Amino acid sequence: MIEKVAKLINVKSIVTIILTGIFAFLSVRGDVTNEQFLMIFTTIIAFYFGTQSEKKKNEGE
């Protein structure tokens, strides 16, 4: 359990969580439209999971 928490606490995870929070806040305030939020959030999440997948793939080789 501690190892899983330690893996979550890295720079990419922290940046992803912070950006998600910021864009959610801006969307609620009305500064970002729903379409803009969806595009930005999808890009961030796709990049994060894409890099995680590539990292796991490289570790398996």
UniProtKB/TrEMBL annotation:
This protein's name: Phage exported protein
Keyword Transmembrane part of the UniProt annotation: yes
Transmembrane domains' residue ranges: 9-28, 34-51
Superkingdom, natural source: Bacteria
Keywords from the UniProt entry: Membrane, Transmembrane, Transmembrane helix
